[in-house]
Amino acid sequence: MIKSLFVFLFCCFSICAIAQTPADKQSILKVLETQRLAWNKGDLETFMQGYIKSDSLLFVGSSGPTYGWQKTLDNYKKTYQGAAGMGQLTFGIKKVDFLNNDVAFVLGSWHLKREKDEPQGYFTLLFKKLKGEWKIFVDHSS
Fold it and tell me: How far does the signal peptide extend, from start to end residue (predicted)?
């Protein structure tokens, strides 16, 4: 019985290790870096390519939940207008954990350097691997 339990646990840990491939982590970090670079160029459309383009996208910010890719883009455009409103974005990635083979949790911080202020906060993201690409499907930023 103990031997069977050991084999079961070994298999579970092996499956978890498979989910945490360096290539998948690098792909997720690349999505975030692409977003950061696009933001700093004022290119919200490219920034939004990191999100799943679906009505099921969930973004939770200070004004509550928003559902949908287009609504999220519209909110970004309304809130961060022009180069002065967008500023220069930096991220501090604290953690990337794989929940299974195609879902990952990311914890990080964000910081905007603008002429008049420097807002900052934290975010939690859920990424899903769809057709070989990692996309954000839940973003909670504060």
Answer: 1-19
